[in-house]
Design brief:
The complex is a heterodimer of chains A (411) and B (145). Chain A is of the alpha/beta class and 411 residues long. Chain A has helices spanning 37-50, 60-80, 94-106, 127-136, 159-162, 185-194, 214-217, 242-246, 282-298, 300-319, 348-357, 370-375, 392-410, and strands spanning 18-19, 22-23, 25-26, 88-91, 114-118, 139-143, 145-146, 153-154, 167-173, 198-202, 221-225, 236-240, 258-262, 265-268, 324-326, 338-343, 360-361, 363-365, 381-385. The two termini of chain A are 37 Å apart. Classes of the chains: A alpha/beta (411), B alpha+beta (145). The interface between A and B is medium-sized, with 18 and 19 residues. The complex binds pyridoxal-5'-phosphate. Residues 30, 93-95, 122, 124-125, 173, 177, 202, 204-205, 225, 368 of chain A line the site of pyridoxal-5'-phosphate.
């Protein structure tokens, strides 16, 4: 594998450091990824050369900034195969994107309507819908997760009974940040559309890891964050079909999103400006476009293959450790680059602290997925998550460290 | 990981593996819970007061070795003490886990001084103490089943 997949580590400055005297083994990509030099340079170049406010100046720098910002929007549209640049709204991240859609669609919900989501959602794609259901009297229903370790994924058979004509919105994650499950997003969208429900995909874990095409998926809305895909923090995207965005009320109001204002009221611009009140994160958008260029130069097909292969190898190495309980897909089933596990009597926090002493960055906790963890009977798990710069050797370091921890707590 | 092994090995692993005063206390007259939202750890402390004195104490909940050991240790430290004495004990414990200062007496607590080297874990060590102090502030009433 390493012979066909290029060594990208030299491109990522932050990887080259020691932690607690050991070379950094960064396996917390599900939380955020590191940034390649190309993205860091794009940010610096923007601030050193173009920096200015967008959409409101007529001077050279302002026009250059506006051009860069709109070019970034076009880059995002191409990256996800949107039909139209106006379908790309720049936001802070997945969380903000879901909030805009939830409150926007919420304005059209009433008692008796159903919002359908799944038992494997990140709090970001769960709590906003709970709030909307409470405010409108709509009912929130969940597609169950199957298997004692969540290995069965979503209960697709239950969808037939859950997807009633009352379902107005079906919001689900593309890839589970806890289980590593890859959901059949195109099928879910197709079945939702058959009953007239709008679909909202949380693509936080899939964007930048897998090829993604909103036309092929057939979704109505899609949300993601730049920081998990080599891009800067504080920038993300809400994609929405244009007619739907133009029919939706803005979540925030203020400058930049109005056509005209008088003392009695205001008229909104169409999408995307309608949803971008105030000065946007211009540098972030520029950095995000650079991240997309970087990722496409590597190739999303090969990044996905690399992630899946590392996940399968990690699953195999971890399964050798006594007392190991691994969540999500079984060996041989498709799995994104995410492996969550519980190690015998050792609590996830203790595991993460011990691994950190070996220079390994893991995540420990409920992964913003408390209801699912409760369902699986686990207070928390540790999670290793991979990206394009990780190697099999790093997984060997992880396995050796975990074996040591297992012995320590068992002894 | 020698510092870490030291930290865990001493008192902490012992309290984690063989917790003292663990479980719900049916005779409790005061109860309070605490959560650590970053990790989902939780701890409930049960007290039975006799006047101003903690006659009985127990804890339950789930969490890492540090939080479980600290809860177990806490119960042994405050049992039989008055509310003011328990509060003073907590102040000393908190000072030790945040600064790493080695205490003069109260020797078991020395193991917890190591926590200060792991700032992310200080909250784990103080979770049960916070719950105990909260419980002390409650009015006496029978435990709801
Ligand atoms: C599946 C999923 N959805 C949503 C989010 C939230 O993303 P952000 O914090 O960037 O808004 C995350 C990130 O942790 C995630 O993994």
């Amino acid at each position: 594998m390493s012979s066909v997949f290029p060594d990208l580590r030299p491109h990522f400055p932050a990887l080259h450091q020691t932690v607690n005297g050991k070379p950094l083994v960064y396996l917390d990509n599900g939380a955020t990824s590191h940034k390649p030099r190309a993205v860091i340079d794009a940010l610096v170049r923007y601030y050193e050369r173009d920096n200015s406010n967008v959409h409101r100046g007529l001077h050279a720098l302002s026009m250059r900034s506006t051009d860069s910002f709109e070019a970034a929007r076009a880059r995002v549209a191409a990256f996800i195969h949107a039909q139209d640049q106006a379908e790309i709204v720049f936001v802070r991240g997945t969380t903000e994107a879901v909030n805009i859609v939830a409150r926007g669609l919420g304005a059209q919900l009433k008692p008796g309507d159903v919002v359908l989501t799944t038992e494997m959602e990140h709090h970001s794609n769960l709590v906003p819908w709970q709030q909307v259901a409470k405010a409108t009297g709509a009912t929130l229903c969940y597609v169950p997760v199957l298997g004692a370790d969540g290995e069965g994924g979503l209960d697709l058979a239950a969808l037939d009974t859950l997807l009633t004509p009352q379902v107005k919105v079906f919001a689900f994650t593309h890839i589970s940040n806890t289980l590593g499950t890859i959901n059949p997003a195109a099928e879910l969208c197709r079945r939702a559309r058959a009953v007239g429900a709008l679909t909202v995909i949380d693509a936080a874990q899939s964007i930048g890891h897998e090829p993604l095409d909103v036309q092929a998926l057939g979704c109505d809305f899609l949300a993601f964050s730049g920081h998990k895909m080599c891009g800067p923090t504080g920038i993300g995207v809400l994609y929405g079909r244009r007619a739907l965005l133009d029919a939706m009320a803005p979540d925030e109001t203020g400058g930049g999103m109005v056509v005209s204002v008088d003392y009695q009221g205001a008229r909104w611009k169409p999408s995307p400006e309608r949803f971008e009140a105030g000065t946007p994160h211009v540098a972030g958008a520029v950095g995000l476009a650079a991240a997309m260029d970087y990722i496409d130069a590597v190739g999303r097909e090969s990044i996905a293959a690399h992630d899946h292969e590392l996940a399968a190898y990690a699953r195999q190495r971890l399964a050798e450790i006594p007392g190991m309980r691994i969540l999500g897909p079984t060996a041989g089933q498709p799995r994104a680059g995410i492996v969550s596990f519980a190690l015998g009597d050792a609590h996830a926090h203790d595991v993460v602290t011990f691994a950190d002493q070996d220079g390994i960055a893991l995540r420990g906790g409920h992964h913003c997925n408390q209801p699912l963890m409760r369902k699986l009977g686990l207070p928390s798990t540790a999670r290793a998550s991979f990206y394009l710069y990780n190697t099999r050797e790093e997984i060997d370091v992880l396995a050796a460290s975990l074996l040591k921890i297992q012995k320590f707590f068992a002894g | 990981m020698s510092d870490l092994t030291d930290l865990y090995q001493a008192v902490i692993l012992d309290h984690n593996k063989r917790p003292r005063n663990r479980g719900r206390l049916p005779t409790a007259t005061r109860v309070a819970s605490g959560d650590n939202p970053t990790c989902g750890d939780n701890c409930t402390v049960y007290l039975r007061m006799e006047g101003d004195r903690i006659a009985e104490i127990s804890f339950d909940g789930s969490g890492c070795a540090i939080s479980q050991a600290s809860a177990s240790f806490m119960t042994t430290q405050v049992k039989g003490r008055t509310a003011d004495e328990a509060t003073a004990r907590f102040a000393e414990f908190k000072d030790i886990v945040t600064t790493g200062r080695q205490p003069e007496d109260f020797s078991e607590v020395a193991a917890f001084a190591g926590v200060h080297a792991f700032p992310a874990r200080i909250k784990c060590a103080t979770l049960s103490w916070h719950a105990a102090i909260d419980a002390l502030k409650q009015p006496d009433q029978p435990l709801q089943s």
